[in-house]
Amino acid sequence: MMVKSKKRKILPTINLSDDLQKQSIINDLQLKYGNKKEIMNSKLLYLTTSPFNVCAFRNVLDEDVAINLLQEIQDLSFVFKENDLLSLHQTMDLNDVESPYISAVRDFIYSDVKKLIEKVIGTNFNETIDLHGIAFNQHNNLLCHSDCLSSRHTAFILYLVPKTWNTTCGGTLDLFESDENNNPVDIAKSLCPEFNSFTWFEVSDRSWHQVSEVLVDDTRWSISGWFHSNSPPQLMPLADQSLPTLSPPVEADLDILKSWVSLKYLNLEISSEVQQQFQDDSEVSLGEFLNDEKYAALVNELLNADWELLGPRKQKEVPGTEEPGVRWSDRRILVLTENRCFCCSPLSLHGVTTFREL
């Protein structure tokens, strides 16, 4: 009986283009990268230096390789991740995937591409490399962040977007200016993903960036990750931006509570029903919580208030006011929320102690 031998997996051979291996090209890129001089009109690569250095190698793979790589990425399982920072789909760690094109491209990134970037920036990466497939569908995004974490040194993205992708599709890589405290301020530049381009940048306390919302019914495909180093960039201490300390509620007359809150919520029978719902569902919505007069006055004043965007953008970008309002209802709503009677009313509803007894 003959035993059939297993077919050996044949990996595609992938190398840097001849031009990217030319010493004259590498020397020019090293010089301009170090001196922060842009390269924007080359078919081979681009380098933007403001607000921080971002470089991309164009057409880094043979087109057939890029197409087959995309097909293998699309065949993987994706996990949807969503929180206050991001909304995207991510694969398992691609270091654990053995399909032919993913394996070949992974080896290419870990060898030729890694060595080239090390030459350009003048550093050595260690053996730790993160690698995942990422998909942004319509309305997905990734808000402002710096990528600074642990030993990460250089972030990279291999774009596999449709060739027709343009700025009207969204999904741009937005780069932020930083203030004197290294807080992100405004978007300084937006880079549109290009099919089969390998984009990379060193992470730092000024490498603030985001992926803008995808606006079309299409997918922004990519492979992304980080090269790590035993000597990651030194970060400046962050300016103190601790949240204000909450003060314990003040003693006040029950009349303040009665003047604002609908009287039905002060009824013991209603309170018992609400508390039971909270215990069953772990949440409760109290409709018509404020009485009509106070609610109407408060809404009117909020609609006519002077609003501004509050930051810093690495933490939030919401309309609000830095200081409490000066109108009577604004002041009294603060008095209400600091009132021990008010704090004790939710206590009686959900059974949770909100403040430690002093």
Quaternary state reads single chain
Q: What is the radius of gyration computed over CA atoms, rounded to a whole number of angstroms?
A: 28 Å
Continuous helix count:
8
Helicity level, as a percent range? Answer: 25-40%
Largest sheet: 12 strands, antiparallel
Order of helices and strands: HEEHEEHEEEEEEEEHHHEEHH
Number of strands: 14
Strand content: 15-25%
Q: What's the overall geometry?
A: elongated
Runs in which pLDDT lies below 50 for 5 or more consecutive residues are: 1-6, 324-330, 353-358
Instruction: Give the CA-CA distance, first to last residue.
Output: 86 Å
By secondary-structure content and strand pairing, the structural class works out as: alpha+beta
Description:
With 358 residues, the protein is α+β, with helices and mostly antiparallel strands. Helix content is 28%, strand content 22%. The chain has helices at 23-35, 63-74, 100-121, 254-260, 268-281, 292-303, 328-337, 340-350; strands at residues 45-48, 54-57, 79-82, 86-93, 129-136, 141-145, 152-159, 173-178, 184-191, 198-202, 209-211, 220-228, 308-310, 318-320. Strands 1, 2, 3, 4, 5, 6, 7, 8, 9, 10, 11 and 12 form a twelve-stranded antiparallel beta sheet that branches. A two-stranded antiparallel sheet has the order 13-14. β1 and β2 (54-57) form a beta hairpin. Mean pLDDT is 83; it is low at 1-6, 324-330 and 353-358.
